[in-house]
Amino acid sequence: MRGNIGFFAAFAMTATVAFAQPVAEMPEYEREVNGVSNGVVTPLERQNSGYQFKAPIMGFGSPKAVVKVKGKQSPVRFKTGQPFYFVLRADQSTNPADLWQLNPMEQKGNGRQMTMMSIGLGGSRDTRSETAIQLRFQKHGKTGFKVTPAIPLPPGEYAISMLGFGGSVSLFGVD
Question: Are residues 169 and 47 in contact, defined by beta-carbon separation less than 8 angstroms?
Answer without folding.
Answer: yes
